[in-house]
């Protein structure tokens, strides 16, 4: 336990059901709590990738939780290691509002990284941790907007040029949408997603990761497929958290661009989210200046800059940016790999990319 200003920071036991329930309740009660703060996320990542999960919890003198910081110990022979909040997520960071609690959690993360020999920590969003932490802005932006009142209003919310592409997909009688969570959906999603990321030059995540997230989140996660007749052409695994639809792992096969099936997929997901009572569509993060960011903007989403934080005992931050010059040749080579080879090798590399 690390104590300061009457705040104790302890490592929550993720195998203790009562402690996990208390942490889940705390996250759900915080307006800025995210799916990536939940113990369910941490445990799914650990089971799905083998990266160890930690949950630092600030405890007030009354015994109640006053703040928390989820951490995944990322390890890679290629990318180095770090304690990351949250591993494989696009958000996380310190979840607290009191300055003393924020400082206690930030100091505890530094101590854990230093004492364990990991040597560095990375926080994706959350409260600014304070002195000793570097802030990184300008690399990523987020995209969120309200879900419209009905399908027609949603269509009008899409800028005219992109709306014309979406209408072509809507008019294609061969395209249909299915939503589910069973093994057939998992296999179809993985096949589509693996092709999509290989074509972008990125190693695919282990199939078990998707299964574990679906299992951990229960009805708060599902898979939406777009099929051309009986062939899956686009697929997305979505999280639902505090009124937000969060499409997280999605993509399309090579024919998706011709079919405009990705446009159809996200449009139908907005409708599906509305039916579930969701209020916001969170399109996640994209790199500033990327084609993905431009595509989301053309769909009617305005970019909002994101801030990340890092601490390192050596003063150096690990480089996991696929756009980095050191990785460009590897990215181009990866795009040329046969899909079975990419699917075999990808999970061993991607475990350290989260």
TrEMBL record:
Record-linked NCBIfam families: pepcterm_femAB
Record-given protein name:
FemAB-related protein, PEP-CTERM system-associated
- Which residue intervals define the domain BioF2-like acetyltransferase in the entry? 160-297
The record ties this protein, via InterPro entries, to: Acyl_CoA_acyltransferase, BioF2-like_GNAT_dom, PEP-CTERM_FemAB-rel
Q: Which organism is it from?
A: Sphingobium herbicidovorans (strain ATCC 700291 / DSM 11019 / CCUG 56400 / KCTC 2939 / LMG 18315 / NBRC 16415 / MH) (Sphingomonas herbicidovorans)
Q: Where are the transmembrane segments?
A: none
Q: Which Pfam families does its entry note? A: Acetyltransf_6
Q: Which domain of life is it from?
A: Bacteria
């Amino acid at each position: 336990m690390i104590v300061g200003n009457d705040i104790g920071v302890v490592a929550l036991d993720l195998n203790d059901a009562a402690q996990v329930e208390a942490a889940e309740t705390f996250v759900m009660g915080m307006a800025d709590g995210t799916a990536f703060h939940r113990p369910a996320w941490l445990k799914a990542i650990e089971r799905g990738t083998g990266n160890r999960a930690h949950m630092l919890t600030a405890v007030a003198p009354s015994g109640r939780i006053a703040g928390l910081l989820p951490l995944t110990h990322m390890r890679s022979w290629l990318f180095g290691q770090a304690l990351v909040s949250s591993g494989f997520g696009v958000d996380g960071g310190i979840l607290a509002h009191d300055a003393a609690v924020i400082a206690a959690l930030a100091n505890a993360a530094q101590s854990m990284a230093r004492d364990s020999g990991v040597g560095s920590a990375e926080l994706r969003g959350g409260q600014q941790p304070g002195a000793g932490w570097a802030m990184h802005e300008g690399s990523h932006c987020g995209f969120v907007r309200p879900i419209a009142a009905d399908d027609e209003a949603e269509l009008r919310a899409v800028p005219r040029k992109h709306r014309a592409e979406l209408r072509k997909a809507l008019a294609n009688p061969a395209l249909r949408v299915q939503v589910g969570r069973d093994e057939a959906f998992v296999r179809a999603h993985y096949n589509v997603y693996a092709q999509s990321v290989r074509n972008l030059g990125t190693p695919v995540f282990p199939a078990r990761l998707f299964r574990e997230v679906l299992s951990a989140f229960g009805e708060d996660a599902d898979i939406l497929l777009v099929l051309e007749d009986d062939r899956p052409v686009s697929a997305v695994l979505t999280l639902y958290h505090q009124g937000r639809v969060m499409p997280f792992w999605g993509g399309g096969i090579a024919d998706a661009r011709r079919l405009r099936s990705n446009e159809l997929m996200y449009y139908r997901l907005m409708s599906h989210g509305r039916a579930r009572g969701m209020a916001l569509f969170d399109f996640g993060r994209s790199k500033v200046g990327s084609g993905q960011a431009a595509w989301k903007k053309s769909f009617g989403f305005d970019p909002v800059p994101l801030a990340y934080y890092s601490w390192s005992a050596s003063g150096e931050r690990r480089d996991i940016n696929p756009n980095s010059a050191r990785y460009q040749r590897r990215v181009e080579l990866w795009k040329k790999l046969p899909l079975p080879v990419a699917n075999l090798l990808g999970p061993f590399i991607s475990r350290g990319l989260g």
